[in-house]
Batch of 2 targets.
Target 1
Amino acid sequence: MGIFLKTEIQPECLLGVWEITEDYDTLYAMVKLAKVEEAKLASFRSVNRKLEWLSVRALIKSMHGENARIIYNAENKPFLKNSQYSISISHSRSYTAILISRDKRVGIDLEYMSGKISNLGYKFLNENELITSDPKNKKFHLYLHWCAKEALYKMCNKQDVNFKTGLTITPFEPKDQGFIRGHVVNSIGEEDFDLEYLQHDNYALVWCCKK
């Protein structure tokens, strides 16, 4: 199927989502890899990991052009080589999501809602965060909190943040799509963030774009 969603969520902030329905040869033919990328691809033993990795390159090519290349720092934070654009990447099962911006910080997280999270809330929720009592929405609500915290963690460059106590999501009632307010505390100080989310099939997607 390829691109499932590509939209400018703010000026100079582009969101893309790719549904992986292609086989290996089809995805491989969509991208042009450097030698170091060929070596990286060959290092993956799992076919699914190869497809996931290729889908990221196919999606960024569609969003940012033929010559877009993704590199990573020591904290595994992605960057676009020879570009001022910020980038955030997430993938889960058959979907890949990318958020890029020329002049803003970005963070995105995508999760397939398997249900494994149902008994793990105590590990990442703090006393100021609330989960709905509605059994139909509880799992989704938990995943939105997790995804929002992951997106904020990426906004902070994956450094100096306590996932449970340093990231707080303001109480909200979950809908199919909407907005979330997040608060970050670390050694730099405190900062508020506005995040957006949506649900598609059994996936939760949360993103944030801020100067």
Note: The two ends are 33 Å apart (CA to CA).
Target 2
Amino acid sequence: MVGLTNLRTSNPPMLPKLNRKRVLFVLTKIDEILAWERKSEAERDTRFVELGRYLCEVRAGQYWRLEKLKSFDEFLARRFPESRRKAYYLMSIHEHLPPLARRELKEVGWTKGLELAKVARRDGQEFDCATWLHKARSLPKDQFKREVEKELTGRETEPWEIIYFKLCKTQIPVVEQAIETAALMLGTDKSRGYCLEMICADFLAGANLENEDPTALLQSMSRFFKFLPGDQRQAFLHEVTEKAS
């Protein structure tokens, strides 16, 4: 209780003084950019960098108070009713990318700019701006995203895409139960996509035993083997080698 009561104070910090002219200018600029749609993609990326800068200023100066709002989140909820995530992305680009990279965003696009910001946030003053800008210009968006993920995590990632299925309501419980059962067997840390792949691989392996299609069977077994932990891989290889000899 002592710690909690110490958080209360009769002398709260002074609120930032609002320069009404500057606040109105920044808020008007934000609304102009959000309403601005009929331009090319490159121009739009340039304006989004500008938008990120203005949003950071609004947060730092508490400009939302001029509109009688209670918080920055409430301000974003008005300007970004569908999702505030993009606003925070743009602010991250402004906060973490050096000026050179922000100027080049017209060439690389704001989505690549966000990936650049992840590396810049980690590296700080050591961020190799020229090298990463070159990669951003030369690589397709998905490949560049994988390059950044590999840099940050040290792991190679496979290309991916979202696939949609239309299921009847009566089918959903069966599919959900199958994925949950696979997760219990494979480990609850595995993704639902991974569990679905293993279910399909198991089905293909069983089906092709009867159809005698060794290519499909080998492909299914290879996928299973790839996801085995290291010690289980060694045990499997040892067993297969013994039986082959």
Note: The chain is about 70% helix and 0% strand.
